[in-house]
Amino acid sequence: MNDRAVSVLSEYDFEVIRTWKGRGSILFETPEGFRILKEYTGFTDKLILQNALLNHIREESDLMVEEILSNKEGMLWTKDQNQNVYIVKTYFSGRECSIRDGEECRRAVRLLARLHKAMVMPENSAWDVPVQRMDKEYDKHNRELKKVRRFLRNKSQKTDFEIYLLRHYDSFMEKAFEIAEQWKNCRKPDTSEQPAGKRVFCHGDYQYHNLLLGENDMYVINFEKFVCDSQVRDLYLFLRKLLEKNNWSASVGSGLLEAYQRERPLAQEELCQLYYRLAYPEKFWKIVNFYYNAGKAWIPGRNMEKFDKLLKQEKDKEQFLRTILPG
């Protein structure tokens, strides 16, 4: 982040003691505690809803979540001289949740369940946002997979990575279409509908990077990707990230699911959705999507490493699903 962004802080009514650079941000200390300055690239209407959601969480629970701070004008955002938009949020001093510590991860899913209970808001025309649909999302992914396969097949000169990718492409794409179709067949018509008079939200990026551990509390940060969707979306993301790093261990997965359900039991429809989310080859789609949207002339070796790991873990994932979440 450009140091000139620090000038934005003059628009806020607090004393800055010191500043230092963070990951794509500027951290600073005030007499009231630590703060973070970040560029905001989303819609300001969504930022207003994000602020309302965070306030609602604090009202409904004792959870430690970030707060968006208003400037002297009472606005949630501030523009610099180049019209770039910045926000200031509270920041917690602590380290990221450790993916190697089983108890910390179980604590994180218990926190997620409590967070989910606090992220159900009364319906309001001011936040009439689109409801995300898993079937629509996967249909979009599948169209993209077809497009990239066509591109690869028509390419005359292929790199080693492209040849390797094509060798396994059809099996993954068939699975993607099969899972998407199975979900449509088993999904009840109202599975993704919001409860009457309510709006159900999820964090949208609930993973260890966005969980900070202080001396006594675990803090949740970075709600910018929040969406109106089934809360299974968050649980799926957290499980997938951890299970990929633990070779789809059944004991790890069952421990995390049990910890979540102690706080918020999952309905049968939610368990069904979790199964299909985990079964869908999203990691394959991510690798393909990154490859296609990056420069094709140079394919980083990291792509090959990720794809190799995916292939090695695919049988482990299938065994995990048969053991823990039979469809």
Secondary structure blueprint with pairings:
Layout: E1 18-22, E2 25-30, E3 33-39, H1 44-60, E4 64-65, E5 68-69, E6 78-79, E7 85-90, E8 95-96, H2 102-118, E9 120-122, H3 134-154, H4 160-186, E10 198-202, E11 211-213, E12 218-220, E13 227-228, H5 232-245, H6 250-263, H7 268-279, H8 282-293, H9 301-324
Report on the structure:
The chain has helices spanning 44-60, 102-118, 134-154, 160-186, 232-245, 250-263, 268-279, 282-293, 301-324; strands spanning 18-22, 25-30, 33-39, 64-65, 68-69, 78-79, 85-90, 95-96, 120-122, 198-202, 211-213, 218-220, 227-228. By secondary structure, it is of the alpha+beta class. The strands form three sheets. Strands 1, 2, 3, 5, 6 and 7 form a six-stranded antiparallel beta sheet that branches. The chain has a four-stranded mixed beta sheet with strand order 4-12-11-8. The protein has a three-stranded antiparallel beta sheet with strand order 9-10-13. A hairpin with a 4-residue loop joins β11 and β12 (218-220). The chain is globular, with a radius of gyration of 22 Å.
**Helical proportion, percent range:** 40-55%
Put simply, the count of helices is 9
Structural class: alpha+beta
How confident is the prediction overall: mean pLDDT?
90
Q: How would a textbook summarize the main sheet?
A: 6 strands, antiparallel
Which runs of at least 5 residues are low in confidence (pLDDT < 50)? none
Note the overall shape. globular
Q: Beta-sheet strand percentage? A: 5-15%
Radius of gyration: 22 Å
Total DSSP E strands:
13
What distance separates the N and C termini?
A: 46 Å
